[in-house]
Amino acid sequence: MKIIKGDPTPEELAALVTVLAARATTPAPSPDPQRAGNWATYWRNARQPLHPGPGQWRASAHP
């Protein structure tokens, strides 16, 4: 590591090294094991719940 601008104190350098070391050792998030297929995902997003109320019959014809 090379400091190219500024004059950090030893405490600031220690804090920076600690943060970079902790970031390097953090494991990557695992992929989602329960991913639904494309067909199931389509219907989950396409169908909206019905909300009864005044004037909602107009909105029911438009997605």
Q: How far is it from the N-terminal to the C-terminal residue, by CA?
A: 55 Å
Largest sheet: none
**pLDDT < 50 runs, ≥5 residues:** none
- Strand/helix succession: HHH
Helix content: 40-55%
What structural class do helix, strand and pairing data support? mainly alpha
- Overall shape: elongated
Overview of the structural elements:
The relative contact order is 0.07. The chain is 46% helix and 0% strand. It contains three helices and no strands. The protein is mainly α.
Condensed summary:
With 63 residues, the protein is mostly helical.
Task: Name some characteristics of this structure.
63 residues; mainly alpha; single chain; 3 helices; 46% helix; Acyl-CoA carboxylase epsilon subunit-like protein; elongated; ACC_epsilon
Protein topology:
Elements: H1 10-25, H2 38-46, H3 56-59
